[in-house]
Amino acid sequence: MEKQRLRGELAAEYLGSMFLVMAAVSSMLFFTYVLESGKSLAILANAISVTFVLCVLIEMFGPVSGAHFNPVVTLVMALEKKVNAGKAALFVLVQTLGGLTGTAFTHLMFWSETGALFVVSENVRRYVYFGEVIGTFILVLAILMLVKAKSNHLPMMVGFLVGGQLMATSSTMFANPQVTIARMLTGTTSGIRPVDGLVFIAMQIIGALLAYAVYRLMFAQCDKEEGRG
Question: In sequence order, what are the residues at sequence separation of 6 or more whose Cβ sits closer than 8 angstroms to the Cβ of residue 7?
Fold first, then answer.
């Protein structure tokens, strides 16, 4: 029974991560290469696409796995002891594989524009690294606080936050290591060259840990009182 449940959770994380990356990559590809729109319109379309898709994915898969789809979210949930270390490692693995599958499937959908399952990105994103600290910080803090409050609106709130920050951060809000890895392997405008991607991932981890530290500071007294109760 426990193994069956774990398989379900891993499947949810894999599929959610895959469709999240597909939304992020395919919307930029469609608007930029197929519709030949300007970059500003493509970014707006990307924000709307990610918002809508992420809301639905969290609503779908939240009851199964918690709908992390993001290694730094899994990291802070492990720190909160909501998932154990072994399950957290498996979540990160399937999230990364799901993201890579999302890139491959997107390239298949738009084969005439891409011509390959994977292409190492040459898209330079330097000097915007701090945006990833800010974007990841607010995302992780929001998730922790919404979970703490047992919000009934978590899917909508997180989706809106990600879409909004995509248009309000210098890095266009990756805030997710598996999405960053997946986007290293697309030659489209949504890609990121590996050297910048690795720095993005480091900034995301820093942002997540800072968010967790602030969260613990805000609720330390409440947790002590609950523990005494």
Answer: none
Q: What is the CATH number of the domain that holds 188?
A: 1.20.1080.10
Helices (H), ranges, 30-128: 39-65, 71-79, 85-109, 111-114
Q: What is the C-alpha to C-alpha distance for residues 129 and 148, in angstroms, rounded to an integer? A: 29
**pLDDT tens across 184-224, in order?**
999 888 999 999 999 999 999 999 999 999 999 998 766 66
Domain coverage including residue 117:
2-228
DSSP state of 153: T
Type of residue found at 98: G
State the helix-helix crossing angle for 2-29 and 85-109, rounded to 10 degrees: 40
Quote the CA–CA distance of 8 and 204 in Å, as a whole number.
27
Paired tokens of 12: 């949810």
Provide the domain count of the chain.
1
Within 10 angstroms of residue 3's Cβ, the number of other Cβ atoms is 7
| Those residues with Cβ within 8 angstroms of residue 78's Cβ, 6 or more apart along the chain or in another chain | 84, 85, 88
pLDDT per residue as tens digits for the range 31-60: 999 998 988 999 999 999 999 999 999 999
Tokens of 77: 């949930």
Using CA atoms, how far apart are residues 139 and 154, in angstroms rounded to an integer? 12
Nearest Cα residue to 123 out of 202, 49, 221, 195? 195
